[in-house]
Amino acid sequence: MSEVRKKSPRAPTLALPDALDRVEKIYAQEGRHATPAEIVAQALGYKSATNGSAAQAIASLRYYGLLERPKDGVLAVSKDYENYKYGPDESQKQAYLIGWLRTPLVFSTLLDKYDSRLPSDANIRFDLISMGFIPGGADAYVSAFRRSVEFSRLYDKPPAQWDGGSPPEISGFTEPPLEQSEPLPPPAQQASQPQTTWGQMLSGNAAQAVTNFSNTATTNTPDVIRVPVRLPKGRCAWLELPIPFYEADKERLKAYIDMQLADDTDAE
Questions:
Q1: How many domains are contained in the chain?
Q2: Which residues does the annotated region (Disordered) include (predicted)?
Q3: What single string gives the DSSP state of each residue in the chain?
């Protein structure tokens, strides 16, 4: 019986500056139009999307939230990248960089541990191996992670200043709403809570998915909104989302669900 090959957790192999260079090539050719993966791969200089290097590059762009997948086989540059590209405010641009840096779950987990500065490469490598990375391939992720942190200037400012000023424009959802692995307790009901903020945050499929729950969505604070999501077999999950909620935040939630869920394979 052949041995099952172990895979490392999903994380970018491209450093953030390299990923931005790649997504710019796609944007220069296609703008934000939904584009078949084959054409995206060709824009990156590959003959086919099935090429191993092409698939790895595209995956890295998706892990950062720079590419979206409106449907199977089709990719599109995220609205956040367009906002970053043309945004005149350097502080907002840095906010996007930090958001993309934190979108991959592996990177975010490391950053939560390294709260003031990065440790040595050997220390980062040890942490990656502890998280399930193959020792022989961990060095590539160490390099991508360190270069991404340095490029984003994450430690240049105290955390309290990262979100200062006007936040970048929020991109709308284009995919079905996410389900929470551990349903949050129902929030305490508050009278006369405005629902317009949620409507402004969401558009497309996600907004439609929560329409039936608009009367039960509540905000405990002006900065957080909780929305129930109906699950099979009479169950319900609660999504607790900060306001504002960025495209990079959505990609991080998706990555977490992909890596951590689920208890079974029951179809909806």
A1: 3
A2: 157-195
A3: -PPPPP-PPP--SS-HHHHHHHHHHHHHHHTT--EEHHHHHHHTT-S-TTSHHHHHHHHHHHHHTSEEEEETTEEEE-HHHHHHHH---HHHHHHHHHHHHHSSHHHHHHHHH-SSS---HHHHHHHHHHTT--GGGHHHHHHHHHHHHHHHTGGGS-GGGTT-SSPPPPPPP-SPPP--SSPPPPPPP-TT---HHHHHH--THHHHHTGGGTTT-EEEETTEEEEEEE-STT-EEEEEEESS--HHHHHHHHHHHHHH--S-----
